[in-house]
Amino acid sequence: MTPDQMDSAADATHEAFMRAAIEQAQQGRAAGEVPVGAVLVIDGQVVARAFNQPILANDPTAHAEVLVLREAGRRLATYRLSGATVYVTLEPCLMCVGALIHARVREVVYGAVEPKTGALVSTVRTLDIPELNHRFVVTGGVLEAECRGLVQDFFREKRRSGRVGAEDQGSGVAEIPPEGEPPPDQTAATGAPEGQGGTGE
Ligand code: ZN
User: Fold this and answer.
1) For the whole model, what pTM was predicted?
2) Which of 65, 114, 175, 181 is catalytic?
3) What does the DSSP 8-state code read for residue 99?
4) Taking phi first (over 0 means left), then psi (-120 to 50 degrees means alpha), and beta for anything else, what does residue 46 get?
């Protein structure tokens, strides 16, 4: 294969696994969670799949990436996932980047950037910290529009139905206007009554 052919073969592989992650995100959406999905792949095989589910699980750490690491570790009976590539529909947060480093994954492929919480390129560039004892390869922007659209649609629907509360404001992706559209109206998103919960942010 020529280098160009190899690139396009890698792209097709990335897209195929990202579609599996998107399917997970869609399941999350159906369950009422912010739609983020992940799959963990070793030697071309999906070893674990999960969607974001902190609400369902009553667990602030139940992000899709953490859940696939746990599931893969259990299935393979190991805490080191050195050959793994994790596909996730959104740029991982600081917690998840930390977990992915601990797991020693080889590569992380994400769909859309997450301007508010993403910890690879958006808020902090975690892997630039020189003292880290492990780094992984990062590929971003795979099926980016679809991955971003899922989250945007989710929040748009919530705003429309007036169900956006303080706990739902965790995603900066919802605030990236799709091309050709004006920025979304923030009034609904910030209109939660005072004293109602809050994320402590
Ligand atoms: Zn996370």
Assistant:
1) 0.83
2) 65
3) H
4) beta
